[in-house]
Design the sequence.
């Protein structure tokens, strides 16, 4: 199988440097590297050029639509397996790529997503969320659906037949993988394909992100909001309780008052995003 690695970047210094350095240390060295940069101004573009990728190009920041960017990049690649790894996702050892593509030995597998561990400076709530979402994979298997394109791989032939949806700004990976799941396609998690990747969001960023995800959820699952208690209060309280237990165990007592604020903002963001999606749809 020929491998192509697609790396998206926008102002990712210094992470992109470390990610590219780790690519050069992989046990699999025979791959094609494509980097698409969305108007970086912090040196990311120059750093990428120094590493000499096979294909590299820039787009304007306002032209960035995730699904469209990935579809276009995929069309420029020649690999049988397309590996997507964001520029700020740093492989944690030389076996990352090998472990990520290994599941494709099963001809039924169409996509694989890897394990993400938070950065050392990640706040305690982020660390807990990443452990639940990724880790050994036991928790997310109980959820309705979970996938992350940040470090992942797909069969080029499948993506050619079923490209990413190009009309949403958030959760394009969830939309695509959910669509594959509904078609009976096999997607697997590779817990030993590990990258370091996380973001600390402030209150304003939290609402913006979850509002975007809420709009996407409205499209993906076609589910309207039920009521404030069911969609905001109940899930926020449940997550806050898990936060409390985790924070006490980790000795992060100062974060306990912040937990309910973040959880209510997250659920409110999703609720508002869904509401806006369906209000537009109903017009």
Sequence:
């Amino acid at each position: 199988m020929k491998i192509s690695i697609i790396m998206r970047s926008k102002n990712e210094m210094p992470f992109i440097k470390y990610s590219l350095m780790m690519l050069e240390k992989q046990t699999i060295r025979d791959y094609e590297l494509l980097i698409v940069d969305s108007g970086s101004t912090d040196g990311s573009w120059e750093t990428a050029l120094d590493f000499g990728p096979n294909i590299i190009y820039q787009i304007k920041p306002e032209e960035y639509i995730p699904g469209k960017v990935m579809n276009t990049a995929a069309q420029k690649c020649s690999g049988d397996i397309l590996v997507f790894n964001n520029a700020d996702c740093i492989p944690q050892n030389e076996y990352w790529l090998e472990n990520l593509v290994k599941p494709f030995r099963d001809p039924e597998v169409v996509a694989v997503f890897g394990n993400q561990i938070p950065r050392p400076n990640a706040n305690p709530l982020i660390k807990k969320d990443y452990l639940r979402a990724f880790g050994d994979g036991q928790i997310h298997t109980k959820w309705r659906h979970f996938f992350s394109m940040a470090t992942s791989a797909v069969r080029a032939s499948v993506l050619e037949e079923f490209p990413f949806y190009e009309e949403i700004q958030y959760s394009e990976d969830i939309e695509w993988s959910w669509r594959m799941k509904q078609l009976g396609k096999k997607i697997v998690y590779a817990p030993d394909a590990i990258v370091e990747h996380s973001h600390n969001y402030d209150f304003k960023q939290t609402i913006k992100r979850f509002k975007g995800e809420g709009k996407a959820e409205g499209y993906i699952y076609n589910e309207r909001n039920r009521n404030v208690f069911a969609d905001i209060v109940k899930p926020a309280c449940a997550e806050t309780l898990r936060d409390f237990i985790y924070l006490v165990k980790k000795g992060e007592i100062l974060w306990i008052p912040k937990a309910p604020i973040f959880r209510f903002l997250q659920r409110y963001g999703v609720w508002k995003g869904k509401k806006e999606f369906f209000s537009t749809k109903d017009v």
Summary: The radius of gyration is 19 Å. The longest strand covers residues 186-196. The domain at 3-196 is CATH 3.90.550.10 (Spore Coat Polysaccharide Biosynthesis Protein SpsA; Chain A). Residues 258-281 form the longest helix (24 residues).
